[in-house]
Amino acid sequence: MKFLDLSKVHVRSGAGGGGCVSFRREKYIEYGGPNGGDGGRGGDVWAEAVEGLNTLIDFRYQQHFFAKNGTPGMGQQRTGADGADIILRVPVGTEILDEDQETLIADVTEVGQRVLLAKGGNGGFGNLHFKSATNQAPRRANPGLEGVERTLWLRLKLIADAGLLGLPNAGKSTLLSSCSNARPKIADYPFTTLHPNLGVVGVDQHEFVMADIPGLIEGASEGRGLGDVFLGHVERCAVLLHLVDGTSETVAEDYQTIITEVEAYGDELGGKPRVTVLNKIDALTDEERDAKKAELEAAAGGPVMMMSGVAREGMYDVLRAVRAEILAAKAQEPERETPDDDADAEQGTWRP
Questions:
Q1: H or E, element range at 154
Q2: Which residues contact 343 (CB under 8 A, 6 or more apart)?
Q3: Three-state secondary-structure class, residue 287
Q4: CA 92 to chain CA centroid, nearest Å
Q5: What digits encode the pLDDT tens for the residues 39-95?
Q6: What is the distance between the alpha carbons of residues 71 and 84, in angstroms, rounded to a whole number?
Q7: How far apart are CA 152 and CA 118, in angstroms?
Q8: Is pTM, for the whole model, over 0.70?
Q9: Cα(287)–Cα(267) distance, rounded to whole angstroms?
Q10: What is the H or E stretch that residue 58 is in?
């Protein structure tokens, strides 16, 4: 299955059915009167987050979603049937944007969460609805309201606890394959990773989700390489794991390149907690390790950890540090109030 994280869709809710103009005419019934029923309501268009999806590839082959129209009313006081709703099943973490790709309509972050995208039109009133003491034989009925048609963008941002950053071939995919059951493509050429990968990492009987995104290069914010659009998949992460290739001769410049691109991306991504790691130390001597670690610490202005994703040297110490940052971030999140808590806060603590 191909990975797709941006898709354009066209939705339209159903129109309401028209009201009916009808009169009761039965043999041996002296007084008939109006008996036209109301039209049925048009169907709605919903978006719902479901399990088992991690791509928007389904919306590449179907972009138009139209709900059913309501059925017109009929005689004998029969109301028309409502139109069937239509549901867009999207992965968890999908943002729904307006046609300008900037106005956020909804952010679907939980399984089962539903968002109304287009409301169906109400059905029209039949002539029975207009009967009164002064108008006992109305000959008018209302048409149903038209449905809502709109163009929307779906943008997927994967939900992960930790995100991997680094230049191409910094060892991100190797680390993900070493500490989880994920099997991303690994090769000795740049831009091996062309789409994000997720892996569940287990350390000290605790688990968290780690996301691997394609590598960044200098000028990615201006469209060079694969660009920086994939940074959207680490926006929801609690911590960023920044890997620097220890075999590079310019570790400080490599570090600063990634930081510059992350800060240029914006959206508070540059302010997220980061764990900086000097990777591939299995290919370095002890003197080279100390020298490059000191150089990287001077550039980062903070502590730097060392690790080898292939040999797994120091890997679990790094994962424990990432796990600690995740726990610290979750501890700072405000607790969500349930609807009952909100009602108690407004009406006091008394309950029947």
A1: strand 149-156
A2: none
A3: helix
A4: 5
A5: 999 999 999 999 888 889 889 889 999 999 999 999 999 999 999 999 999 999 999
A6: 11
A7: 11
A8: yes
A9: 39
A10: helix 58-61
CB atoms within 10 A of CB 296: 22
The lowest-confidence range among 155-169, 195-209, 217-231, 254-268 is: 217-231
Contact partners, residue 261, CB within 8 Å, separation at least 6? 216, 218, 220, 221, 228, 231
Q: How many CB atoms lie within 10 A of CB 331?
A: 7
Beta bridge partners of 97: 104, 153
Name the token pair of 68: 């059913």
CB-CB contact of 48 with 102 (8 Å): no
- Hey, what's the torsion of the CAs at 111, 112, 117, 119, to 10 degrees? 180
DSSP codes, 174-232? HHHHHHSS------SSS----S-EEEEEEETTEEEEEEE-PPP-TTGGGT-TT-SGGGG
Q: SS3 for 325?
A: helix
Amino acid identity, position 287: E
**CA–CA separation, 39 vs 17, rounded Å?**
4
Q: Report which of 47, 60, 64, 43 is spatially closest to residue 105, judged by C-alpha positions.
A: 47
Instruction: Give Cβ neighbours of residue 108 (< 8 Å, ≥ 6 apart).
Output: 47, 48, 49, 90, 92, 93, 94, 95, 96, 115
In angstroms, the CA 184 to CA 244 distance is: 19
Structure tokens at 152: 């929307």
Distance between CA atoms of 54 and 200, rounded to whole angstroms? 14
Contacts of 202 (CB under 8 A, 6+ apart): 179, 180
pLDDT of residue 334: 64
Cα(196)–Cα(217) distance, integer angstroms: 16
d(CA 172, CA 274): 15
Q: How many CA atoms lie within 13 A of 308 on its CB side?
A: 12
